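Weekly modeling sync, notes
Attendees: S.R. (lead), two postdocs, one rotation student

Agenda item 3: backlog of single-chain predictions. S.R. asked that every request posted to the team notebook include the full sequence so nobody has to chase files. The rotation student volunteered to paste the first one in as an example of the format we agreed on. Action items at the bottom.

Example entry:
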Amino acid sequence: MASHAFRNTSENIRRELDSIFKEVKSRELDGKFVSIARLEMSKDMSVAKVYVSTLSGMDKTQKVVAALKAAKGFIRGELSHRLDLRHTPELVFIADDSMEYGARISKIIDDSVAQEHTEREDND
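Predicted structure, as returned to the notebook:
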């Protein structure tokens, strides 16, 4: 079981990364909703795997991840300034399609409900 300090540090890193992402100047990030789908810390807290997702599809998400990788030095430096950590973890950015998948599932459900509603009205 993860210790309270470990969980707290992971949550703080995630919160600060969300904020830092908004400051990264990149054509690939401008106007896009970028979300951290998941953050996995190594046990020694030396590496943070950051799973990034967007609503724009996997191709765009991969471009966003490439932009984050290009800005990794800035991002890690900002994280170091904002959090009082002995060592700032190495950041590994990974594209994740969970937001796109969730949006697709939501649309399928909405379409199904709308179709059912239409069928009920036709039967009345």
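Discussion: group reviewed the output briefly. The helical segments are 4-21, 58-70, 72-82, 98-123.
Action items: rotation student to repeat for the remaining queue; S.R. to check formatting next week.
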